[in-house]
Amino acid sequence: MATAACTQKTQLRADSVDAPKQVAAPAVDTSLVMSLERGPCRGRCPVYRVDVYADGKVRFDGKQHVASIGIQSGNTPASSVQELLRAIQSSAFSSVDTSFVMGSAACGQYMPDLPWSRLSAKLSTGMKSVQHDPGCRNAPRYLRKLEAQIDSVARTAQWIAGNGDAGK
Which residues 6+ apart lie within 8 Å of 105 measured at CB? Predict the structure, then answer.
C-alpha cells in the first residue's frame, strides 16, 4: 500500500509538470518590397522586370536585349534589401508624382528615345509605383539613383550582360 501511495504521488507530480513549450520561429517576411521594370527604346536597351522580396529572393523576367530571356531567380542579402528599402522610404519617393513621362504635367522639357522605367516600393501606406522616362527634364535625379541601386542589390547584371559571377 505504501508503494501504491508513493507511485500515485510520483505520478501526480509528473502530471503537474508542464511539458516543454515549443516556441515558434519568428516569421520570415517573404513579401514583395520593390520592383523595377525597364522598357524599350529605339535601340537595344535591355527590357526586363526584377522583383525583390524582403527575405532577399530575387525574380528576374528578361524580355528583350538581355542575356537571359525568361524567368530567372537568385538571392541577395536580406540586409541589403532592408537597407535599400529604408533609403527609398526616407527619400521623397512617397510624395513624388507617379508619372514622369512625355505629356505628363510633371515631365517638363522632353528628350525622346530614352528607355522608361517603373519603380515600385513598399511604403507604410502600401505599394507605390512611379513611371519614369529619363527624357523628362523635371524628373527628380534620385529616381535614377534608386533604379541603379535596385539593379545593384538585385544583381541584375548577371542576367542582362550574361556575367554569371555577378550573382555570387
Answer: 97
Phi, psi of 139 (to 5 degrees): -65, 135
For residue 34, give Cα distances in angstroms to 18, 45, 52, 59.
45, 21, 5, 11
Residues of the domain holding 69: 29-162
Can you tell me whether residue 76 is helix, strand or coil? coil
Where do runs of H (alpha helix) occur along the chain? Answer: 2-16, 78-90, 141-154, 157-160
For the segment 37-61, what is each residue's pLDDT rounded down to a tens digit? 999 988 899 999 999 999 999 999 9
Give the domain CATH number at 36.
3.30.1560.10
Residue pLDDT, tens place only, 117-126: 999 999 988 9
Q: Classify residue 139: in a domain, yes or no.
A: yes
Residue 27 DSSP one-character state:
P
Contact 32, 53 (CB under 8 A): yes
What is the pTM (predicted TM-score) of this model? 0.79
